[in-house]
User: Fold these one by one.
Assistant:
Number 1:
Amino acid sequence: MIRRTLIAGNWKMNGLSASAVEVNAIADGAPNGVDLLICPPATLIASLANRGVPIGGQNCHSEVKGAYTGDVSADQLADVGAVAVIVGHSERRQEYEVTDAIVCSKVPAAWGAGLTAIICVGETKEQRDHGAALDVVGAQLAGSIPDGATAANSVIAYEPVWAIGTGLVPSINDITEMHAHIRAQLAGRFAEAKGMRILYGGSLKPDNAAEILAIENVDGGLIGGASLKAEDFLAIARAA
Ligand code: PGA
């Protein structure tokens, strides 16, 4: 089954109205044969949608609406033009105590709104040092992905916590092993496992992108820091 490469940018809490120039430049320079996605802060989704680059959210609530001050629902993201949403990013798992069960409850909300859920998993440095990385990620997958995941409605992002924003990346062997492990676990549950994309994230940059994106079962990247400048983001997309 063919899996189209997906290069997704996660702007985190960066970007103002003026950042539209970056999205315009990405639209102008988008290489053929690669799917692109930019996930800006929720405040920018409406103004960045319909510029030629698909736009996604960075988080959503599990409910469609209600008394949840400060939260955003998947329906609201879709309403202003988002086509995808990141759920369970490690920064939210760590800083807001978002558990696997909470991640799992957000995914059907994303699907219900017609959004592709980008479900993030990844071990800490301590867990890797203890030889627990495969087990930790396996448990996160089991707990965070609800039944009903398909190649169209779900993308998995493997992001080792210790590689995010640090300039550190796992070895090629470790990424290969983890992505094969994730593929095998998906195959145990989902009929469309072979078509589901598994992204790598964590200090993915123009200078390491070609090597990492060539690894078997690495179907694209989730990029933080290097997604903020169109030039860097496009260099990664071209390397894919
Ligand atoms: P980074 O972030 O590319 O800056 O390491 C990746 C992420 O958090 O998605």
Number 2:
Amino acid sequence: MHKKIWVIAASVLVVSACGKKEAAAPAAAPVPAPVVAIAEEKILNIYNWPDYITQDMVANFEKESGIKVNYQTFENNEALQAKLVAGNTGYDLVVPGSVFAKSQIDAGLLAKLDKSKIPNLSKLDADIMAKLSNVDAANDYLVPWAWSYTTVGINKAKVAKALGNTPLPENAWDLVFNPTYTAKLKSCGIVYLDSVTEILPPAMHYLGKNAYSNEPADHKAAGDMLAKVRPHIRVFSSTQIDDLASGKVCVALGWAGDMNQAKARALENKSGVEVQVLLPKTGGLIFFDTLAIPKDAKHPGNAHAFIDYYLRAEVSASLTNELSYVTANKASVALVKPEMANDKTVFLDADALKTMVPPASFGNAARESMSNVFSAFKKGG
Ligand code: SPD
């Protein structure tokens, strides 16, 4: 029996074991409890990342609850942070990365959840919730949305052609951080995520430093290294799915979930592009995104109703099945399609998990120091 691990053990996040048997014979879906919203205007304003919700999720919620959802997207944690700090966001539900969420809780930007309105919290994996308490001590503010990891993805054929006689490096991070490789790959296109807190951590990790270092000297070292590859980076984008699927770029420093969506899209489009998600020898960086209600949300009742709806096993499972992102919903595991459950770039196995860097948070001063380094890096092109 092929044992899958959905536990990010020890110091990392947690996913529990599930067997082929479970995946092949999904339990009959229980009849869901109806969406219950308290009396307030029937509107819900959601602010989420792009390509991070299934087509049906909003439509089904609207149909069942009568609540109209206004859905907008942001491309990086910095954009969401700026809105929350400015206040009066107009949003009722947002999706911060755990890397930012601690400082948002500490700054009083998020509202405490009314857990009595979210009965489906019981479906969440207790081990993951325990890990999340590093950020949200009593699990009072955040509900896990999904997790994946930052890594390197490639267009196999284009990378092979651009590298010529040079084989793929043992450590996939070389493809985006080592000028010997990036100089060769420049011609077919390298894309980086467009966010300081997405690029500096893997760069510091590549240098053998703490990926979440708060030390300005470490940020500078990462900046010095990045300056050497800057001329080889074609584009900065946090919506990389089409770029990879269409063959517009051949290497991406991005999120595994999006890369797997690019892989599926290329297959669907029969474009002939084969996207491969690489697991760097020294590990990718795990990230965890969470649902939270801004302090000044006008429709917190509807936000609670959506959170409870999302935590239904079949709704959480649809996110994994359609978007290749793993959730913390234990009850959804049995509903994950076998081809997804068996994909080791989605559900990491024990060996891969051992290499992965667990998420952590940055202080405000570190974010400022990193931001200066990143701006100089981007301009340096
Ligand atoms: N398609 C969007 C996926 C959102 C990923 N959030 C990443 C946060 C990483 N720090």
